[in-house]
Hints:
By secondary structure, the protein is mostly helical. The chain has helices at 6-9, 26-40, 56-69, 75-78, 87-103; strands at residues 2-5, 44-47, 79-82.
Amino acid sequence: xxxxxxxxxxxxxxxxxxxxxxxxxxxxxxxxxxxxxxxxxxxxxxxxxxxxxxxxxxxxxxxxxxxxxxxxxxxxxxxxxxxxxxxxxxxxxxxxxxxxxxxxxxxxxxx
Length: 111
């Protein structure tokens, strides 16, 4: 299983939803990191520790939007999350992906 440490390999301060919102956006993460990882078709464990919080817009635009785009996949079978600093972060990511899978094209995953 591949491990991807978001703080070390992407940013410890994830940004907003779209590239137009600034650096390290959810859209940038989805297009530049998640979609290439998805093409490899290997399970990935995302380490969430070391990040100064994840805006819900970032989580929704990256992971949830990826699940909406690839509705036929169960991303929670391919992606897992670890956060020793705050276990609720893991719950937030998993909930957002589940909602995207069941609600389809909803534009927000309010938790």
